[in-house]
């Protein structure tokens, strides 16, 4: 049987079924896009608590409206399940699971490996498997391909590009980006064979504005790393300049705004309290780890990592400086952190620098509380079990803190109100720039 032609025809007629393993910040919006285009979609997740929520038409992610989930469920084009034995029902298996670092800052591919093993267990001829999780170049070839080739129920191995199809297409999700969403961000696609690329592009072309085929899965894996290393290095640059310019009594934010007026040769990046999210703090070190196998040192990446990792410590130093001007120390002071998510206007806590700031402040003896309208309770993470609840931003509450530390610049914050009632503010996002309380606002 010519599995390629059969699958291509199914895709053209929209009679194929898409299965997505991992219904998080990447997998869920992608599943909803397929369902919106009338393509039957099954979402798979090991977290059984998500399944009834989604199947009842509700969202558990703040920036993804429940109305979108309800529409997909009611159309009959989307359902969620934790029953992976249903994988043979689907024609395209898309893996979108986390790829964190372990305690030694080395790649932890356990989620990818476990998902790939399950996909291989239920693999049938004619299926497409796509990995979307950010990883080092070679993952698709070295880990997924052998598993899929060995999945045949006969003595003969499956042949990639003939019996099954395998590709890598890095996710480019940017939660709550007002200008781009899953459907409007071009999709890079690299396959093991030309047939794999052709079929993967055909699947994504039905829901994504544009596909960008590249020569191999390794090239697609490297593309994702380049995108995030580019950001990590440039953020490290402005973070370093922030600290240098502070000593010179120069406002880095003013300098960036002035530099932005140059119509060529400059892209604006902004400093902050540390890197957050699942990509920028993690992905560069996947390449660092892989490069060692080729006797190469990634000096730029490692230096950028050092600078960005230092930023929470620098913020704490600035907090100490601000309190010293009031004749106080961090030890025993009441500190309120504004914003717990890693970026504004979302509830995503992955790698949020706010968690590190809370931990550092506590280690200095400070009494720490936080406010975040998107995160009413701090969920446990791999590193932190803080067990805290968001406090209200009332006039009395604000006045009771020795210091207010802005970590995440949510749009819903009334910065004038906060500045009017806070005793002292450390601003890591330049959010109070228009507020006329300069005597008690420190930038960090």
Describe, in plain words, how this protein is organized in 3D:
It contains 14 helices and 13 strands. With 444 residues, the chain is α/β, with parallel strands linked by helices. The chain folds into two domains: 3-221, Rossmann fold, CATH 3.40.50.720; 252-443, Rossmann fold. An eight-stranded mixed β-sheet has the order 3-2-1-4-5-6-7-8, with helices on both faces. The chain has a five-stranded parallel β-sheet with strand order 10-9-11-12-13, covered by helices on one side. 45% of the residues are buried.
Helix count, DSSP H or I runs of 4 or more residues: 14
Q: What's the name of the CATH homologous superfamily of the largest domain?
A: NAD(P)-binding Rossmann-like Domain
CATH topology of the largest domain: Rossmann fold
H-E string? HEHEHHEEHEHEEHEHHHHEHEHEHEE
Classify the beta-strand content into a percent band: 5-15%
The percent range for helix content is 25-40%
Low-confidence stretches: none
Number of domains: 2
For the secondary structure, the number of strands is 13
- Broad shape: elongated
Mean pLDDT comes to: 95
- Which structural class should the secondary elements be placed in? alpha/beta
CATH class of the largest domain: Alpha Beta
Alpha-carbon distance between the two ends: 64 Å
What CATH architecture of the largest domain do you see?
A: 3-Layer(aba) Sandwich
Main sheet, how many strands, which sense, barrel? 8 strands, mixed
Which value, in Å, is the CA radius of gyration?
Answer: 24 Å
């Amino acid at each position: 049987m010519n599995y390629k032609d059969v699958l291509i025809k199914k895709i053209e007629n929209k009679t194929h079924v898409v299965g997505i393993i991992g219904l998080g910040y990447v997998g869920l919006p992608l599943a909803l896009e397929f369902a919106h285009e009338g393509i039957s979609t099954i979402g798979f997740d090991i977290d059984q608590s998500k399944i009834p929520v989604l199947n009842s038409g509700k969202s558990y992610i703040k920036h993804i409206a429940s109305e979108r989930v309800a529409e997909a469920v009611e159309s009959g084009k989307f359902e969620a399940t934790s029953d992976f034995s249903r994988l043979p029902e689907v024609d395209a298996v898309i893996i979108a699971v986390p790829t964190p670092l372990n305690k030694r800052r080395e790649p932890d591919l356990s989620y990818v490996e476990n998902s790939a093993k399950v996909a291989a267990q239920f693999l049938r001829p004619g299926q497409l498997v796509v990995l979307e999780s950010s990883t080092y170049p070679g993952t698709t070839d070295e880990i997924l391909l052998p598993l899929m080739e060995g999945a045949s129920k006969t003595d003969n191995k499956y042949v990639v590009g003939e019996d099954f199809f395998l590709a890598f297409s890095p996710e480019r999700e940017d939660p709550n980006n007002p200008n781009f969403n899953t459907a409007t961000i071009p999709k890079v696609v690299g396959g093991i064979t030309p047939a794999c690329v052709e079929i993967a592009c055909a699947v994504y072309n039905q829901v994504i504005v544009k596909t960008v085929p590249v020569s191999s899965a390794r090239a697609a894996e490297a593309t994702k790393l380049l995108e995030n290393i580019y950001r990590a290095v440039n953020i490290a640059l402005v973070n370093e300049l922030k600290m240098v310019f502070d000593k010179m009594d120069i406002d880095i934010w003013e300098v960036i705004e002035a530099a932005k007026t140059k119509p060529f040769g400059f892209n604006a990046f902004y400093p902050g309290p540390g890197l957050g999210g699942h990509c920028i703090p993690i992905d560069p070190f996947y390449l660092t780890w892989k490069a060692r196998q080729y006797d190469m040192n990634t000096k730029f990446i490692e230096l950028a990592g050092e600078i960005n990792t230092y930023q929470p410590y620098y913020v704490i130093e600035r907090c100490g400086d601000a309190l010293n001007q009031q004749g106080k120390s961090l030890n025993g002071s009441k500190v309120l952190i504004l914003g717990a998510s890693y970026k504004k206007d979302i509830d995503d806590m992955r790698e949020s620098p706010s968690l590190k700031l809370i931990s550092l402040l506590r280690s200095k003896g400070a009494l720490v509380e936080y406010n975040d309208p998107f995160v009413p309770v701090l969920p446990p993470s791999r590193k932190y079990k803080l067990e805290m609840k968001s406090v209200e931003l009332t006039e009395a509450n604000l006045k009771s803190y020795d210091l207010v530390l802005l970590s995440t610049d949510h749009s819903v914050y009334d910065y004038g109100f906060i500045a009017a009632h806070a005793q002292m503010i450390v601003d890591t996002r330049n959010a109070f720039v228009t507020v006329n309380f300069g005597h008690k606002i420190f930038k960090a």
